[in-house]
Amino acid sequence: MTDSRAEHGLAVELSDLTRVYGSVRALDGLTLHIEPGELVALLGPSGCGKTTALRILAGLDTATSGTVSVGGKDLTKVPASKRDMGMVFQAYSLFPHMTVVDNVAFGLKMRGRDGAARRQRAGDMLDLVGLGEHADRYAHQLSGGQQQRVALARALAIEPSVLLLDEPLSALDAKVRVQLRDEIRRVQIEVGTTTLFVTHDQEEALAVADRVGVMNAGRLEQLAPPAELYSAPATKFVGEFVGLSNRLPAQVSGDTAVVLGRDVPVLPGSTTGSGHALVRPEAVSVVPDAGGGARVATVMFLGPLSRVTCRLPDGTDVVAQLASTEALRLQPGDAVRLEVAPEPVLVVG
Ligand SMILES: Nc1ncnc2c1ncn2[C@@H]1O[C@H](COP(=O)(O)OP(=O)(O)O)[C@@H](O)[C@H]1O
Ligand SMILES: [Mg+2]
């Protein structure tokens, strides 16, 4: 990391965590290391164990096996009240009958800080999230986005060792969600607190995190910086879960595959022999060609980019994402040739 976050934060280590509820293995050997000051997003479908992992880190739930440490200290048996973690949940977690500043100061009061120090710290945190002027309002007088900013200020007021966010944006509408996402990232970089951000929304995870951990069925499939996760998925699950991909027939030999008649390098973890290459829509180009076997099926205008669906002679649909200036020259029914960019692809069975 290029900022000073590493000097402020503490390392978090989840080691081989298992959590069994009856017949459900919510976590199945989860190991995750978060660097001091780093923001890791845990991304995965509903039910994959994200909240369970966060609750075990917070001490709100106990692992069936495995350990939790923060700053090199084993916290596995330390109760939640002694872990000093700041938490923000989906929504509606403020005390509605308390003012904003009292909400933010609440944790400090519990920790026995005197009134003047509490008010000072709470005011600073409200300034940090841009709500200094709303200190004396009641929580219920704020919009959903403002309430979540107060929740963030409250979580940070206690100077937590770790900041935990469980789907903090999912109750908000799209525009506020993006604003607050960027706000959370700005604040996190400023305070340097090591952060675990849980979400099922891939765009959110990719936008906010230093590294994204993709979870599937209680395990971590891949932990990587956003661009790497997108361009070099390590497993079939990650390739299919993150971003939109075409599945194009591919024949692998050695470290290359033939996809749509072209040689393309394959990523580690690819299958051998025949399979399907996961090809991003932006890696497909559409060339008008009277002799080409493919036909344009639909052109969907999305603003600067358009999504063009073409049909191969065998009936396979291929989605290409093109600059709209290019796409608008294409009409449904046009004969075209499809080409795949020579970027590495994951080939799956
Ligand atoms: N208290 C519980 N009792 C029984 N099963 C639970 C409990 N908490 C979570 N689970 C189960 O554990 C799995 C993981 O849940 P959770 O961690 O909440 O997933 P996520 O946050 O990724 O949606 C799910 O199958 C869920 O039903
Ligand atoms: Mg959850």
Automatic annotation (TrEMBL):
**UniProt xrefs under Pfam families:** ABC_tran, TOBE_2
Q: Which residues, by range, are in coiled-coil regions?
A: none
Entry annotated with the keyword Nucleotide-binding: yes
Q: Which UniProt keywords apply?
A: ATP-binding, Nucleotide-binding, Transport
MF GO annotations: ATP binding
Q: Tell me which residues make up the ABC transporter domain.
A: 12-242
Q: Transport as a keyword?
A: yes
Highest taxon above the source species: Bacteria
* Annotated signal sequence range: none
Record's protein name: ABC transporter ATP-binding protein
